[in-house]
Design brief:
- Two copies of one chain form a homodimer.
- The first copy, chain A, folds into three domains: about 5-135, Rossmann fold, CATH 3.40.50; about 140-300, Dihydrodipicolinate Reductase, domain 2 (2-Layer Sandwich), CATH 3.30.360; about 345-425, ACT domain (Alpha-Beta Plaits), CATH 3.30.70.
- Chain A contains 14 helices and 16 strands.
- In chain A, helix 1 crosses helix 12, helix 5 packs parallel to helix 10 (about 200-215) and helix 7 (about 160-175) packs across helix 8.
- In chain A, helix 5 (about 105-125) links the parallel strand 5 and strand 6 (about 130).
- Chain A is about 35% helix and about 25% strand.
- Strand 12 of chain A pairs antiparallel with strand 12 of chain B.
């Protein structure tokens, strides 16, 4: 056991430093488990002189991640730069071309270029591993690819973005508004200065596209993911959900149907007693449904230094043990191109919040629009009554197809007494 | 991809038949994922002529599992006979000695002989895989051994026996008594004709001992597991738990402490809002705590044909892909012999139910016994008042060490007014 596996780490942010710390602190444990010493030999970041709180002397420094990727000093290339283009993409491509296995935490890169990168990995016969790209604290990639390998997975759903889940949990607990809670999350470091990737659902969509590919044996199709974020969720929506025994979560949902794949990320109201409702704060969770195994639920921290470093190191050990396999479980050329089922074909129950002038006949107009489109009302709440100011009307409707609901909402939106664009949130039974 | 991996299945009960069904139904999928066809070539069971509902013609029949294990017709030996001794043990030993990888669902075998079997596997350089032995529907062995490989795990707890969880869930939902619900579970096939392995906690203890070994890098020490089953749980305990905001679960708990390993299986009251409280019916769940990853929760079906077959096949694919590794994550000789922390050193809160004669001074005597042993009372409930018949008194006490509590209970038990041996249930904070 004299030979060491030399690791090159590109990107020395929180996660990069976490990986180096973990490899050092657990060196003995990891050598026993991997059967070989795992040592960081070379690094790369934008600013060589910044104090990162750990001793980096003795490590070969590269200014350019592509030069690190090509360096003869490393056996494994770990990409923790981020972003779907630029240095992250170029360096991963270079490493794979040079026949070096790659470990990355970069969901944007895999969601956009996973197929060509996996092809490059297959061609070179090396690993492309990305456990840390989806829900760092949950070994979900390994669970789907290996643990559930005997199953056809028919559906999966997940709370895939800790920032959104933290914001929604805090909004519910405190009754505060989205902007207010977002600002606090930014101060606490739970949200980025530019939060749009998180709160607009893009980050969750990257992860969902990766999971769907792996679970269904399909080519990644990120552009086919329907995406809605959480900016439009009001504190009143939170309160009404509670009243209906529901909770609002940002879910990523993927289903394998005979008519095509469903891939959607949007706010959902789920029963307060459902497993997803109980996943709070910065935790992530993924539920899968396999034909032999039934439901499996995995839950853990979604991101952060420790959980993400843990996932990166798990990938490194898999490579050290020569057990990483194909990036998507089968050779890339065996993944199928699949049609997408558009969101208009979704069927389900819905919550609708309207702001209306409290005039005679307004409720008759609204309910007529629903009826004329075959949408059946379940609950109506209108509280108070104010001839001077608009009032809120909340409806829930029974299962319907989304196209019918959208047709009804288009009519409702045009009513003179309806003063805001209708707010709609999908309800999931489980 | 012309070569097929030939599988020998010993034991054709529900799980054995499930494995054969899965391998047949998913043959194409599995060949794509494993890179080689997986075919059952030979089988063995006690009764050759029994109709098992599937076509077994064309498979080589063995009357003796040892002869199957030694047969040149198979590349992998799958042991689904059960039991820690006899044919199961002999055939697994024979297969390993013959240099054949083994997949087993047999927790009793691994809990009792896992060390010597893993040693035999290491000596022959073949795999000994047992994902199906613990919580079939949850890839927990793989998650701990590979997914969390970068972590020192400090503790784990699990609902590891679906039969007990089903009984406890049904008792709570219906208010019915243990014997009544057990009889129903037996009719429904959720409990064995001889239920003692399940309801007395032995099955959960087998699984806990395996998980503890894997998580802590320790030699399996089944005899060190403290075991209490669920037979003594009354419907009144269920009702009182509910009143305190708690639920009763049979948990397996393992902790790595500086003074030794904790391994205990017993009924526990947990907060009704805790993740474990939400695991209902035949579901299993395992929570692990790792130093970098934090808390991870895995939940799924514990047993049954489909989930167990799914786990067996996952192990077969790992072997086909040559990625099974060491049975306990490291070579057996690197596992450490660890001391056990006896249950008397446990500290925690407790629930106590007493049946007493409603005489003057009885409460004073009880509370004095607690006080004299340094045990601090939290709640007392005594309802009604009947000079003719014994009444129930329920207490909860703040965190104390178990030795002190037992000393107090020994005194309480001897009081003239106390007419039954005190019933005690440990309370866990999370």
């Amino acid at each position: 056991m004299s030979k060491a596996l030399r690791i090159g780490v590109a990107g020395l942010g929180t996660v990069g430093i976490g990986v180096i710390k973990l490899l050092r602190e657990q060196a003995d444990l990891l050598e026993a488990r991997a059967g070989v010493a795992l040592t960081v030999s070379a690094i790369c970041a934008r600013d060589k002189d910044r104090d990162r709180g750990i001793n980096l002397s003795g490590l070969v420094w590269h200014d350019d991640p592509v030069s690190l990727a090509n360096s003869p000093d490393i056996d494994i290339f770990v990409e923790l730069i981020g972003g779907s283009e630029g240095p992250a993409r170029l360096s991963v491509e270079a490493a794979l071309k040079a026949g070096k296995p790659v470990v990355t935490a970069n969901k944007a890169l895999i969601a956009h270029h996973g197929m060509s990168l996996a092809q490059a990995a297959d061609s070179s016969g090396v690993a492309l591993s990305y456990e840390a790209a989806v829900a760092g604290g949950i070994p979900i990639i390994k669970a789907i690819r290996e643990g559930l390998v005997g199953n056809r997975i028919s559906s999966l759903q997940g709370i895939l973005n800790g920032t959104c889940n933290y914001i929604l949990t805090t909004m519910r607990d405190t009754g505060r508004a989205f902007d207010d809670v977002l600002a606090e999350a930014q101060e606490l470091g739970y949200a980025e200065a530019d939060p749009s990737f998180d709160v607009d659902g893009v980050d969750a969509a990257h992860k969902l596209a990766i999971l769907a590919s792996l679970a269904f044996g399909a080519e990644i199709d990120f552009d086919a993911v329907y995406i809605e974020g959480i900016r439009a969720i009001g504190s009143d929506d939170m309160a009404y959900a509670e009243e209906f025994g529901l909770r609002i979560k940002l879910l990523g949902i993927a289903e394998d149907t005979p008519d095509g794949l469903v891939q959607r990320v949007h706010p959902v109201m789920v029963p307060a007693t459902s497993p997803m409702a109980a996943v709070e704060g910065v935790f992530n969770a993924v539920v899968t449904e396999g034909d032999f195994v039934g439901l499996s639920v995995l839950e853990g921290r979604g991101a952060g230094e420790g959980p993400t470093a843990s996932a990166v190191v798990a990938d490194i050990v898999d490579i050290a043990c020569d057990r990483a396999g194909h990036a998507f479980g089968v050779p890339v050329n065996r993944l199928k191109k699949r049609a997408t089922l558009p969101i208009e074909r979704h069927t389900g129950a819905y919550y609708i919040r309207l702001v209306v002038l409290d005039q005679p006949g307004v409720m008759a107009d609204i309910t007529a629009a629903l009826r004329d489109n075959g949408v059946s009302l379940e609950n109506v709440i209108q509280r108070g009554h104010d001839p001077e100011a608009p009032v809120t009307v909340v409806l829930t409707v029974h299962e319907t197809d989304e196209a019918s609901l959208l047709a009804a909402l288009a009519i409702i939106e045009k009513l003179d007494s309806v003063v805001e664009k209708p707010h709609m949130i999908r309800i999931e039974a489980s």
